[in-house]
């Protein structure tokens, strides 16, 4: 990997984190107070924290922020009343093409039906054996072993990108290109800035990245189609996908794949990092999971409830309605605070405890309802493979006492930035 590209990726990851950091308050204590006192706030709470939010794309639209589990569930479930089409506004060229997250109604349903089979466990399990597990063990974990110490966030930054790019079907022999694509994908996330001094440059960089990624992906799509698209990779599967006689053209495959890059990389990075923090801070739980690998997925699910990386989701009210006695006008933005709903004491017993034995109940770390993350089996499988490889190959894994303790931060895109560990 070229050093220039590596530092580009690390720099842009840090830029994204600082952009979504928000003010330095105890978020969970604040949310507990909001649930008790103002469960429906007549304002954009993320704006108050200084974090960019798509709820603020049109400053003339009123915004309401929800903190309770039941209210967030109602909004996430009802995609007719609470729509997503507005997500395409304000992001220009990035939202040209097949962008599932910004589609509503029958169009979303038919596209989702077309794409869903490509992401089902049956496909993902085949990828797991043939690609995911091998890449994580051979290319990442085994080369780290002689050092007996690491910042696990270095590993976390690179492995999801490496895995997803392999699944997508990018040429395996050009690793420097993959790092470049990853830096471009992160530049898209750093696009919306609250600081006006940074806004113009960030938007320009995001737009350049959007175009560069399009050209790079389109080249591979055209090539795969010309070769007959018979492979097991995501691009070939998307080319072959069909629903009610409809299939995807090259532009649609390209724009869908491009939309996956920011969706699939650093979300997995931070989710893995947060899971490891919980386990390393609770060594008894770590040992239980090491001894019984049936607990790996429970630990992942609980970590996603406890500290979701995507801390809020926004929808727009299609009609006037009422939530907990508060009137929501037609066209208003509704911001659902997932981090708060996931700790709602009326939904979860001992909600502030990381408890892998808790009774399963839906939480919103991957969203919920029609737009629920289509890549969740991919993400969970990657994290499962990463944790299993670490447990198999790094005995006596523990936090490095000579380094700063890990901290989970960020009002949005939440997770740790450093995670220093030792093993025997
Ligand atoms: C741990 C990692 C991940 C997290 C936390 C995450 C989180 C989410 C969330 C919260 C949503 C819902 C958005 C909404 O309701 O508006 C979503 C949607 C989506 N995610 Fe993920 N995601 C992750 C990994 C992935 C991966 C690996 C892929 C692809 C391989 C992916 C592709 C998508 C797509 C395409 C959607 C849009 C679905 C739709 O609108 O119908 N995500 N994700």
UniProtKB/TrEMBL annotation:
This is Cytochrome P450. The keyword Ribonucleoprotein does not apply. SUPFAM superfamilies: Cytochrome P450. It comes from Pseudomonas abyssi. One of its GO terms (molecular function) is monooxygenase activity. Keywords: Heme, Iron, Metal-binding, Monooxygenase, Oxidoreductase. InterPro entries: Cyt_P450, Cyt_P450_B, Cyt_P450_CS, Cyt_P450_sf. It holds the Pfam family p450. Belongs to the cytochrome P450 family.
């Amino acid at each position: 990997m070229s050093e220039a590209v590596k530092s580009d990726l690390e720099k842009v990851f840090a830029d994204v984190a600082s952009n979504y950091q928000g003010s330095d308050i105890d978020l969970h204590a604040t949310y507990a107070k909001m649930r008790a006192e103002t469960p429906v706030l007549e304002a954009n709470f993320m704006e108050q924290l200084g974090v960019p939010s798509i709820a603020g794309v049109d400053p003339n639209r009123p915004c309401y922020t929800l903190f309770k589990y039941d209210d967030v569930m109602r909004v996430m479930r009802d995609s007719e009343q609470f729509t997503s089409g507005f997500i395409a506004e304000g992001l220009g060229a990035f939202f040209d093409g097949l962008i599932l997250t910004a589609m509503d109604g029958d169009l979303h349903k038919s596209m989702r039906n077309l794409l869903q089979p490509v992401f089902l466990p049956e496909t993902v399990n085949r990828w797991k054996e043939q690609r995911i597990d091998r890449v994580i063990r051979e290319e990442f974990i085994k080369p780290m072993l002689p050092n007996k110490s690491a910042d696990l966030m270095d590993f976390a930054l690179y492995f999801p990108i490496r895995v997803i790019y392999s699944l997508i079907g990018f040429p395996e022999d050009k690793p420097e290109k993959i790092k470049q694509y990853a830096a471009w994908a992160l530049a898209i996330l750093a696009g919306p800035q609250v600081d006006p001094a940074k806004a113009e440059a960030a938007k320009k960089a995001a737009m350049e990245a959007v175009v560069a990624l399009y050209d790079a992906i389109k080249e591979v799509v055209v090539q795969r189609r010309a070769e007959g698209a018979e492979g097991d990779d995501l691009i070939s599967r998307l080319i072959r996908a069909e629903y009610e006689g409809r299939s995807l053209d090259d532009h649609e495959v390209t724009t869908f794949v491009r939309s996956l890059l920011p969706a699939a990389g650093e979300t997995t990075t931070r989710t893995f990092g947060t899971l490891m923090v919980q386990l390393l801070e609770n060594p008894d739980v770590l040992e239980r999971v090491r001894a019984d690998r049936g607990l790996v997925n429970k630990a992942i699910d609980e970590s996603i409830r406890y500290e979701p990386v995507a801390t809020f989701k926004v929808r727009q009210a299609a009609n006037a309605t009422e939530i907990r006695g508060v009137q929501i006008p037609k066209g208003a933005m509704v911001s659902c605070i997932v981090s708060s709903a996931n700790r709602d004491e009326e939904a979860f017993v001992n909600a502030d405890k990381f408890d892998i034995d808790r009774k399963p109940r839906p939480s919103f770390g991957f969203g919920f309802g029609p737009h629920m993350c289509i890549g969740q089996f991919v993400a969970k499988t990657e994290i499962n493979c990463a944790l299993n490889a670490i447990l198999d190959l790094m005995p006596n894994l523990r936090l490095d006492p000579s380094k700063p303790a890990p901290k989970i931060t960020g009002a949005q895109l939440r997770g740790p930035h450093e995670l220093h560990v030792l093993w025997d």
